[in-house]
Amino acid sequence: MLTQTTETAIKALLFIAIEKEKQPLSIAVIAKKLKCSPTYLSKTMGHLAKAGIIAVQHGSKGGMSIQRPYDQITLLEVVQACQGMFLPDFCDTPEDHSIHICTFHKAMHEVREATLKTLGKWRLANLVANPQGNIVGKTHPVCKMRFGDSKVVAKAVGVS
Length: 160
What we know:
Layout: H1 4-18, H2 27-34, H3 38-50, E1 54-57, E2 63-66, H4 75-83, H5 103-121, H6 124-129, H7 150-156
Antiparallel strand pairs: 1-2
């Protein structure tokens, strides 16, 4: 459902938020930590900049910083910045409500509405508050949002 670009954008936002004392962060620093291509990350961050989620400072001391309070940035906004409008591939709801639609369409419409509601509810602040869970030991070894040393991440966000 989420593209690699969207997952990378969310992970980059988490890293920038956790490293708030070292702002702004360069593409090179973020790419190294996330283990991805700086060129790819630059394009990904460009989507977030166009959406007003991050600010880009140019120059030798430039880099990326989050432009708004974390509780004002929804996952839906990040998804739509990276993937466009969230419109799953199924038939549209007809404007004329007297037209009967297929049952599959009704189910998929409910999935879309629930997904939009959930992505709109979750905010960057929620992710920053608990960036790494404890599914297996102290961190989940295959978590897509995992980066760096879990002790360093926990200390940076004030978790013991």
